[in-house]
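Troubleshooting: if your tokenizer reports a length mismatch, compare against these two reference records.
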Amino acid sequence: MPQTPREVVNNTIRFKSPERMPYSLHPDFGTDFYSCGMNPSPDARPRSGIDEWGSVWENIGVSSLGEVKDFPLTNWDEWDNLSIPDIRDPQRWESLESIREKAGDKFLLAGGISMYERVHFIRGLENTWVDIYEHPEELGRLIDVLVEMNLYAIKRYAAAGADGLIFCDDWGFQKGLMISPKSWRKIWKPRYARVFQAAHDAGLLTFMHSCGDITSILDELIEIGLDVIQMDQQENMGLETLGKRFSGRITFWCPVDIQKTMVNGSLDDIRAYCKRQVKTLGRPSGGFIATWYSDPAGAGHRPEAIQAMCETYLKLSKKNA
């Protein structure tokens, strides 16, 4: 009997030799995943307007993304005035009713709350970097609020039948981490470890989106329990470098590199990259999930490039079946 999409994803992440390569592609090409989350989510990122924390967002052009223009906590003396969303509000969890049944035989992936990006959406990026050295206790208190939110969310998601937890924390510049790896280890690493351990204890696999060059901390993310890295860029770190250092130890969930080959490559370049990527990052036992970038206009991706990528991934998936 063929494996269900849920089984294919699980077996890929656990390196248990799935029948085929899993994928989450453009809606025209299909997906093995079903998403769920809080509504509203404390980690919502509006194109424009004010979020639950009081951060003011504005759109940055053709992208579906916005950026924060006004931060609600520019001074730690204002901590008591910060609007902290109530994670336990019952209305926030109504969207999970019968979510396992709605997901059917697909892998149910639940949305968590970022623990680096949300901090700088509240404090501002430069303030966050300064806090590492001048206000570490206050910074830690804010991160701990986000940790506790994730711990509560994990319990609710597990009870609803979710299979995995994902959140987004872009840590890298084009070359290197945004902060020193030493500071990351001291402040963020133990807090990530708490969340990953709680997820595993609840039966959830752990996913994190992070772009930029994160090679300096990826070993340690694996060490503390990250199962899947959702990585839209690979060429800035080197596809072969990623494969040599990390293949077989973590599952990569990737499209064709969104800044280089996907933008500047020919259709044949894109098809060749798909094949090289799957071979380099994955193993016969698992370790690679194909995806697409869901804001093609913002990234400058041509419709024909998206089609070439998705068609190639589907062929590679069927080839492994």
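Reference record two:
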Amino acid sequence: MYLTLPPEWGTIQGMRFLLSRTDALGDLLVSLPVMERIRSRLPEAEVHWLVQPDTAPVLAGLEGVAGVHLRAGDTDLVELMGKWSFDAVLNLGHRDGAVISAARAARVPVRVARSRGRQIWQATHVLWKGRYGSGRHEAVNALDFLRPWGFQGGIPVLPELSVSEAELEQGRQDLSADGDGRPALGVVLRGSGSGAYPSPAWWIRALAVLERDGWRPLVLSPGEDGPLSPVGLRGLMGRLAACRTVLGPSTGPVHLASALGVPVVCLMGRRVHHGPDRWTPLGRRVQVVQYPAPEADLGGGMDRLDPAGILPHLARFR
């Protein structure tokens, strides 16, 4: 049942949404279920995204995306929102308070934000529920932004990303440059958004263990730490899609692999804010490995994990 909105909010079925997710890659990926929920309830609605230039390629060719707008330093948000006459702006990247300020200046009828700074007074709908310590996945927290329409809650549905045949073939060629028949294991060493990740010394030990177990581990991210030539985000997607499995901490490229349907073994910490309940990659084939207790430290804690303990999880995807 749809929520009846005031007449000045436009026709609900034909609404034009702007979903703003101007932070990191992983944040964008766990927010994609918001678009899926809108499309499932309002098939005639238009869904646009406001994202950073470096994350925008993820949305290329994704079904349901009516427009992608870049949040660059010279972006005039008020002009953008006025030009497109959005009916609703959802500031999913809630730290970017300028989005709601611009939406108000552009007279966007529905402005949804978290209770943060000036957004409290500039939004038409404010989410007061805290995310920390709630035990809820970040994708469910993102669905809270649909509360004005009564669409929040439930199980997040992630649209499965895809790459073109050309991108996949290039990824296969990149991975097979030094191939020897062993299954390719894409490795993500670390990321700016991960709550915990192993040290370089731990990875040296782990890569040797993986080699002895018959895998061909290839460091795909960060690109400067791996053996392959640098590529953009679509190139990385092609390489991830060509892997048998991807291993790494909960960070953007690992979430991206899972969204592509690639099996993932995700190394995670134990802090509530960074743990599996909140930040496990969405997808159907995800194995989570947590470092041993105690939970106090983020860096050294992951190094307590025995690399051999990862092998049974990888074996499921061999």
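Descriptive notes for reference record two:
- Confidence is low (pLDDT under 50) at residues 1-10.
- The first strand starts at residue 16 and ends at 21.
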